[in-house]
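ARCHIVE CARD
Drawer: 12
Card no.: 0347
Subject: one protein chain, sequence and derived structure
Cross-reference: see card 0346
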Amino acid sequence: MHVEDPEANYDTHPGPWIERCMGRNPETHKLQVYKIPAKEVKIMPDQVMQYLGSVVQDMLSVYTGNVVVKGRRWGYCFSRFYYINGKRQTRCCLVLDRIHQAGLMYENIVTKDRKTIARIRQIRGHLGQPTGEPMYKVLGAGESYYRDLKRLYERHFLRRGDESLADDVGLKVLIGQ
């Protein structure tokens, strides 16, 4: 990933560069694009989430998800390719914040005894019924990472976070792969 490098000298920097749009020129009304010195930063595999559902066979279709944290909506687009251990992963998105990862990964469900619990978000069937297949996975994550995400989700998105870690069908499917 390329991030802005404030310590780089603009005249002697060999690259890489970030191109940023800074608005329109008031005289010509054309977009002003500036090159900013950047540096490469390695991405950890547990910062990348992958959408596991099928998308329409149109080449321009992508899947988007959103999370509302403290009254602000954050949108994520699962349209990137990432190479992890030399293998190309499709329909991925870089999610740096673990709270946002938890918000994308888990959803609220209400049990028969009217308790709200968290479970891994599942792909919906054509009638809206859950299929039992998880919607997302975190690349390079194990069972303990998913349990940590569940605790974060219960702490930040559920009103009470003292529920025990119940058996989750989606977690068993993800760990079994």
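Annotation on reverse: The two ends are 28 Å apart (CA to CA). Confidence is low (pLDDT under 50) at residues 161-166.
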